[in-house]
Amino acid sequence: MQAAVPFPAAHPHGPPPVGCRSTRGDFGEIIEACLDKTAESLVFSHAASPADVSQAMEAVRDAQADGRPLDLLEAVARVQGHQEEFMGNIVRTMGDRLAVILNPSPPLVPFAGKLIAPSQFYESFDQIHKIARVLLSPVIYAEDTDAIGTASANPVAAMILAEEIRKTVFRRFGIRPFVTAARLDYESWTFLSRKHFEL
Q1: CB-based contacts of 111, cutoff 8 Å, min separation 6
Q2: Segments making up each domain of the chain, as ranges
Q3: Per-residue confidence in pLDDT tens, the chain, 199 aa
Q4: CB atoms within 10 A of CB 84
Q5: Are 160 and 33 in contact, with CB atoms under 8 Å apart?
Q6: Which CATH architecture has domain 112-197?
Q7: pTM
């Protein structure tokens, strides 16, 4: 089961649709778009309180300013005081709640940690690699420019990167690739993020 991009409007009773404010590689704009949409979704789905989300957003901004990518789901889990041994379950639960209100709902890909990093794709699309790094959403496969997949513990981040990939490939080649946005479990996500982004 795959979540194709472009994606339709969000859940009819949910927060506004996922999207980027910038298509020009302005990472600050992309980070803020992801933060805002993730924050709205966390509160809307009752996955976190507004106070926890607000505090976690500041932690993410501070980390990004220091060049250390940090996802809002993980930041919220830490703000809530969860210990490291429970982090996987907590982040997964938040990701599940977000996925339910997104349309289409990005599927969980349990085997993604075994996939080989698409080095050639990253070399050809250096800007996408940089955006993937700040969003912590690795590209999990790339079949030329026809079929590309990205995944994250945060389904919002995966959908935003998928849209950036679609726009970038269309601008360069004039084709609209089939882009999949999926979810990763916490362990696969941290492993792939270290491997793809040298974190």
Answers
A1: none
A2: 23-101, 112-197
A3: 333 333 223 333 344 344 433 333 358 899 999 999 999 999 999 999 999 999 999 999 999 999 999 999 999 999 999 999 999 999 999 999 999 999 999 999 988 888 888 999 999 999 999 999 999 999 999 988 889 999 999 999 999 999 999 999 999 999 999 999 999 999 999 999 999 999 8
A4: 8
A5: yes
A6: 2-Layer Sandwich (3.30)
A7: 0.85
